[in-house]
Amino acid sequence: MSILEARRLRVRLGRRDVLTDVSVGITPGEVLGLLGPNGAGKTTLLKALAGLLPAEGCFLDDRPVGEVPARERARRMAYLPQTPGSHWPMSVRDVVSLGRLPHHRDARRERDRAAIDRAIAEADIGSLVSRPMNELSGGERARVLLARALAVGAPVLLADEPAAFLDAAHQLRVLQLLRRRADRGDAVVVVLHDLSAALRFCDRVAVLGGGRLVALGTPAAVLSDDVLARIFGIRVARGEREGTPFFQPWLPVAS
Amino acid sequence: MTGRWWAALSAALLLAAFLSLLVGSANIPVGDVIGCLAGQGDPKAVTVIREIRLPRMLLGLLVGGALGISGAALQGLLRNPLAEPGLVGTSASAGLGSVVAIYFGWAAAHPLALPLAAIGTGAVGTVLLLLAAGRQAGPMTLILAGVAISSLAVALTSLAMNLSPNPYALTEMVLWLMGSLKDRSMQDVVLAAPFVALGGVLLSLTGRGLDALSLGEEAAASLGVDLSRLRHMIVIGCALAVGGAVAAAGAVGFVGLVVPHLLRPLARQRPSLLLLPSAMGGALLITLADVTARVVPSSSEMMLGVLTSIVGAPFFLTLLLKMRRSHA
């Protein structure tokens, strides 16, 4: 059963329909990739699912997201926006510990500390903990912010392009990390621009185009040559490694 | 802040408070000050300590604390180290209320009129600020809106002075706008204290929200922070605290800018850990500035607001240059 679901979701921002009639659910243990060209509505869908936009049609455990108390919602869903860092040059550990804010800090300091340590280890930022944020590279900052989201310890993780600022090795590490989270039973929704990464790491992908859901299913079925050409405007070169198919964007479709 | 810094700040504050009781035109020996506070010793000295210097010392602590914590909270909310009650228009709006209360003679008619007018216009100014800047305003928009509201409040204040019915009222307004703790009584303390205390309590409850906000508004909202509630608490808290402070001491600028900036490294850059130290630091700075105003040899006593501006404005410029260099 879906833990988080959009049912015929419609989002208007100002006078513009940003999302129309989008229905998609996410179950524990899967990675759902949100794909689409720029401006397709991926980030808007993620925000609506996170309860950060006034939208009707999003449900967390069958309850409208807007009716779930903010604190409880924050404990159930961790949201990682696309932001460059923190506004003050706090230490890395202090930033990660902000992930524990939704939890009541009474007699459970031990649990807070354990969650923070685990997130730091998972995001592989152990060597950075005492450094101030303003001295880190863009990639290091992105990993710290990911650790902050992991520290929430929520069963649902919503991440907006978590690999955007990372070098190739760290991109792979972050995607593997999200994969492991799902394998342990979390529900992971991730906005991705890297289509071949989606093919490899996602259980299902939802393709958005012009604010509508264009395709939903396993990446192998959805990312057909036709969809790639029609929605993303690319032709791809395909291959296979260790039984896993992959592709590389090769040429833009002539317009 | 580590325990050592807390101890140092507390000790400095106590020392400054004692200095404030000690320094003045009447020469009262160090050893007699405590006795006079308890009402023992030379009756003249007792009167000087209990009715002149004690209210002045207490008001200094209140005003400084209000400006310090308001600056720290505004900087956290706007995520900008240049924000302070003066810069976003709260002080100028509160000043307008005070001048209007003097202009219409309300201040003379009822002791509560001045603080209430200051708090009222301070709140109106801050609400206008948020309306002008819009719900999703970035720090720059908010500061520009603050400059606009400040200008409007200053223009209306000038108008009141321009149309001032008599020279006495004009002098009173001008002196008010320079900011001072001179000639204040226990009644002023009693009037300002509840507003400053209430505002301070509201602001001190915003720490967790401000910490989360350092990750940006979306991340903060996703961590369960109610952003509009946080904004309201800070607007009302600042209006109460700054309104109370301006009503008691007039316009005293730059304290809310300087103090949080100096203390931020000691607070590990965390907005929540900066609130209380900024209140203490503001109290310390105002008390020391007030003592300085008393001892600087001049024909008439230096005004407190003039002194803080003379020190604060160059500080502001230096900070601006430093920020420009770090962005270059």
Key features?
heterodimer; A: 255 residues; alpha/beta; Rossmann fold; 6-stranded mixed sheet; 4-stranded antiparallel sheet; globular; B: 328 residues; mainly alpha; ABC transporter involved in vitamin B12 uptake, BtuC; 15 helices; 77% helix
Short description:
Chain A is α/β, with parallel strands linked by helices.
Q: Could you explain how this protein is built, in words?
A:
The complex is a heterodimer of chains A (255) and B (328). Chain A has 255 residues and is of the alpha/beta class. Chain A is built from nine helices and twelve strands. Chain A has a single domain, classed as Rossmann fold (3-Layer(aba) Sandwich). In chain A, the strands form three sheets. Chain A has a six-stranded mixed beta sheet with strand order 6-7-8-3-9-10, sandwiched between helices. Chain B has a single domain (62-327), classed as ABC transporter involved in vitamin B12 uptake, BtuC. Chain B is built from 15 helices and no strands. Chain B has helices at residues 3-22, 30-37, 43-78, 90-103, 106-109, 113-133, 139-162, 167-178, 186-204, 207-213, 217-222, 227-249, 255-263, 271-295, 304-327. The A-B interface holds A 47, 50, 52, 70-75, 77-81, 83, 86-91, 94-95, 98-99, 101-102, 132, 145, 148, 152 and B 79, 208, 211-216, 218-219, 221-226, 264, 268-271.
N-to-C SSE string of chain B, H for helix and E for strand: HHHHHHHHHHHHHHH
CATH architecture of chain B: Orthogonal Bundle
Give the largest interface pair and sizes. A-B, 31 and 21 residues
Principal-axis shape of chain B: globular
The name of the CATH superfamily of chain A reads P-loop containing nucleotide triphosphate hydrolases
Architecture (CATH level 2) name of chain A: 3-Layer(aba) Sandwich
Strand % of chain B is: under 5%
Low-confidence stretches of chain A are none
Order of helices and strands of chain A: EEEHEEHEHHHEHEHEEHHEE
Low-confidence stretches of chain B: none
How large, in whole angstroms, is the Cα Rg of chain A? 18 Å
Question: What kind of sheet is the major sheet of chain A?
Answer: 6 strands, mixed
